[in-house]
Amino acid sequence: MSKKRRVLTFVAALALYALTMPISAFAATPTTIEAGNSSEFNEAVATVNAATSGEYIIKLTDDFQTGGASFSSSQPVSIVGNGHTITFGGSSIYVNPSVQLSLGAADGSDTLKISGGNEYIGDDPSLLRIKGTCNMYPGVTIADRKGAHGFGGGVAVEGGTFHMYGGTIENCGIDAGSMCYGGGVGVAYGGSFTMDGGEIKNCFATSPYKWTDDGMSPLWIASAGGGVFVSGGSSFVMKGGTISNNKANEMGGGVAVVASPYEIEGGRWGKLQSSAQILGGTISGNEANDGAGVLSSAYFYNPYTLCAAAPNVGAAEKPGLFLKNATITNNTANQDEGYGAGVLTVMMKSPAVAEIRDCTITNNSAAVGGGVASYGNFTSLTIDGCTITANKAVNYGGGFAAESNSGEGAGTTITNTKLCNNSADKAASDVYLNGSVAKLSAAKDMDELYLGKPDDVTNKKIDGWYLDNEDSRYATQPKEQRTECANYASIGSDGKVYLVAAAKPSLVKITFANEDGTTIYSEDWYEIGTKAAQITAPTPTKPSDDKYDYVFDSWHKEITDATEDVVYKAQFKKVPKNNPGNSDTDKPGTDAPGNNTPGADGSQANGGNGNASSSVNANSALPSTGDHTATVLGTALAGTGVLALAATICARKRKRIW
């Protein structure tokens, strides 16, 4: 091969190699700028903002406090903490449009804390304000920011994009004024928040102010979204992590997605243009007056113009509330008047809908609708493949409640769901409907045991929907009064319906007691049809008195196969005591045969025939052959008394010996 051809071949191979190399191999190494104090940090931010190319890392080398930072360059920048804390006493980090800011390391190897120093801020207290793009990685903590008025105590997403891959947002919130939205994270103006993991905890939106205090509409919300608040054509997608122990004075202790004035002005009630998709993770331990865990509403709304000109893509595609593969547990709404401790949906009109699929909703508590509640017209709610158990209502609907949920397209459909073993103090342990449409699947399809009262059905397989009315609770009804709901698959909007998923009585109670029923020896439940031989009877006893001992004789009626509740009462025989002071000594009891000496097996031994007369001729019971000692004994007893008898016996014995 000629030299020229070899050169051309080499060049071609080099070009091919370059084409096949990943682009990242040619990426420039990020520029790292160290900052150990406020001045160095400010210089690092200025350097990044002046850049027109490259990628930057601001690396903390010490803990320090600074007055704030505003990023404006489109060049990617990261802040890594190396275990340090940066405190923003009275200001924030601003992520302006086109900015790409990352907090921590994508592989979770870095530790960074961004603190508000627990300094109280008036308006707009957010530690992090996002109009561009911000990624937060595991190992990062945003904490300790409190303020009086605004949205987003920890993070405010103002039309930008916030992606939380992990980390913690805690101890942030707003507690005064008429706008207390999103103690942890507030998302508005068409913003987008995605949560893949991490925690939002101990945050709050707890202003004591209510708009009605100034004579304004009762539909205006002042405090909502203790953990996360979403409004104004914005979206929230949760794929993992936890939102826990947050609080809102009015609505949505964990998560609140609510309409803004732009969406519902002109009486367009029900038009919700924001979206919350909770597709994993846990929402627990949150508190609010209503909707303690999760709230979605296009009836109660925020009166501020936090709206985008148009909803973002996620909100436009799926307006409403969507829960799937999530756990909603231990949330608490107001016990006197609160609705929907786990989930509350309020008046959302198509295309906005509410769906709850494959979720576990347990141990939540409210006045009405401990697990899930739907309120008002329009809302179409689907619950499928869920477990809704162990929730409590102080009033009605321990598992599910719906009020005034009717009209075109409205109603609740519940399928493939274990909606059982909830409780309500007044009525409707599992389902409460007031002027609401609902379709329930067959209760027997739950394949669950009923754990409540009464005892005759406890731990029996659930087989139907039963009435659990306020004036006649299922748990206290006699068997004959328990009534199944026949139209559970299509319940109309007329009147009120109170239901519990329970079972037909399949047990009977068999009781063994003393003569007058005041002492219970045993009381057990038996399956109907249990054979008499399989029923365990106790061995009764009765205390002695001055004259008599008492021996069990029989039950007052024969023990038969189990068919109904029954009480068997013990009957005893009297045995006179051998007591010199007892005038009945040596006399048989009036109802006892012979001398009533009990045998080892409980039978009456050594007493002859219990029906025999006490005046029977003694000789008639004596043998006529063999040893005549008995004959002589009988004659002596009848004629000469005990002394003559003794003499006769001795004479007979001596004669034999001699």
Can you give a write-up of this model?
With 658 residues, the protein is mostly beta strands. The strands form eight sheets. It has a 17-stranded parallel sheet that branches. A 14-stranded parallel sheet has the order 1-2-5-8-12-15-19-24-28-32-36-40-44-48. Strands 4-7-11-14-18-23-27-31-35-39-43-47-52-51 form a 14-stranded mixed sheet. Strand 53 and strand 54 form a beta hairpin. Mean pLDDT is 85; it is low at 21-26 and 585-658.
Primary descriptors:
58 strands, 10% helix, disordered C terminus, 658 residues, 6 helices, 17-stranded parallel β-sheet, mainly beta, 14-stranded parallel β-sheet
Layout: helices, strands, pairs:
Blueprint: H1 3-20, E1 31-35, H2 38-50, E2 56-60, E3 64-66, E4 69-71, E5 77-80, E6 84-88, E7 93-95, E8 100-103, E9 112-115, E10 120-123, E11 128-130, E12 133-136, E13 140-151, E14 155-158, E15 161-164, E16 168-174, E17 180-181, E18 185-188, E19 192-195, E20 199-201, E21 204-205, E22 223-224, E23 228-230, E24 235-238, E25 242-244, E26 247-248, E27 255-259, H3 261-264, E28 275-278, E29 282-284, E30 287-288, E31 294-301, H4 313-317, E32 320-324, E33 327-329, E34 332-333, E35 343-346, E36 353-357, E37 360-362, E38 365-368, E39 372-375, E40 380-384, E41 387-389, E42 392-396, E43 400-403, E44 411-415, E45 418-419, E46 423-424, E47 431-434, E48 438-440, E49 449-450, E50 460-461, E51 464-467, E52 496-502, E53 507-513, E54 520-527, E55 548-555, E56 566-576, E57 597-598, E58 604-605, H5 629-639, H6 641-657
Parallel strand pairs: 1-2, 2-5, 3-6, 4-7, 5-8, 6-9, 7-11, 8-12, 9-13, 10-13, 11-14, 12-15, 13-16, 13-17, 14-18, 15-19, 16-20, 16-21, 17-22, 18-23, 19-24, 20-25, 21-26, 23-27, 24-28, 25-29, 27-31, 28-32, 29-33, 30-34, 31-35, 32-36, 33-37, 35-39, 36-40, 37-41, 38-42, 39-43, 40-44, 41-45, ...
Antiparallel strand pairs: 47-52, 49-50, 51-52, 53-54, 55-56, 57-58
Helix pairs in contact: 5-6
